[in-house]
Amino acid sequence: MPDIILATRNPGKAEQVRAMFQGSSWTIQTMAEAGVVGEAVENGLTLAQNALAKTLFVSRELPTQWVMGEDTGLFIYALNGEPGVRTARWAGEHATTEEIMRYALHRLAGHENRFARFRTVVVVAQPSGLTHTFEGWIYGTILCEPQGTPPPKLPYSAIFLPYGSDKTLAQMTPEELRALTHRGKAFQKVRAFLECRGEQ
């Protein structure tokens, strides 16, 4: 089976992506499993720029491998689109999952409009150097209190309720995450693209 490297060290994200590729001919390796040392510099102004930076960082280390890098942003309308590209670092560079979640609730305290959007961008790089971009998004609201337990480094999953759902992202099964979420929609497109190419 062909391998593709997922440019992340986030265990929660890796677990979600692997579930989305269950039954696929492709196997997912993380940066740590592939022996990649260091981190990409994420100073892009957009999700696509950051996803590309992650992908190219790993591609330079492993030029014969397929690689995919992902960046996700939460855009809260009452806060003028914050945190956006700063989603992972909004509460501080080393803030914990719990601290980030509580910071988001604090920033929205007193706001009636809790409308928000999650967007994911995935960049896939072939060994030839060609890159391909995919994206997915969902709309929902930010709850006043968490529901469910967020996976490691996915702090907003317990406070984001997608429209039409009675479950937060943290309460969803792997099958629901694959079918209904921003990340699931983006990686469904990636999976379809990869399965058309097999061992290329």
Poorly predicted ranges:
none
Which strand-content bin applies to the residues? 15-25%
> What general outline do the C-alpha atoms trace?
globular
Largest sheet: 7 strands, mixed
How far the N terminus sits from the C terminus, by CA atoms, comes to: 11 Å
| Fraction of residues in helix | 25-40%
Number of strands: 7
Give me the Rg, rounded. 17 Å
Class by helix and strand content?
alpha/beta
Query: How would you spell out the order of helices and strands?
Result: EHEHEEHEEEHH
Return the average pLDDT rounded to an integer.
92
Number of helices: 5
Compact summary:
The protein is an alpha/beta fold. It is 28% helix and 24% strand. The radius of gyration is 17 Å and the shape is globular.
Describe the 3D structure.
The protein is an alpha/beta fold. It is 28% helix and 24% strand. The protein is built from five helices and seven strands. Strands 1, 2, 3, 4, 5, 6 and 7 form a seven-stranded mixed beta sheet that branches. Strand 3 and strand 4 form a beta hairpin. Helix 1 crosses helix 4 and helix 4 packs across helix 5.
Structure characteristics:
200 residues; alpha/beta; 5 helices; 7 strands; 28% helix
Layout of helices and strands, plus pairs?
Blueprint: E1 3-6, H1 11-20, E2 27-30, H2 47-61, E3 66-76, E4 82-84, H3 97-107, E5 115-125, E6 131-142, E7 160-162, H4 174-180, H5 182-195
Parallel strand pairs: 1-2, 1-3
Antiparallel strand pairs: 3-4, 3-5, 5-6, 6-7
Helix pairs in contact: 1-4, 4-5
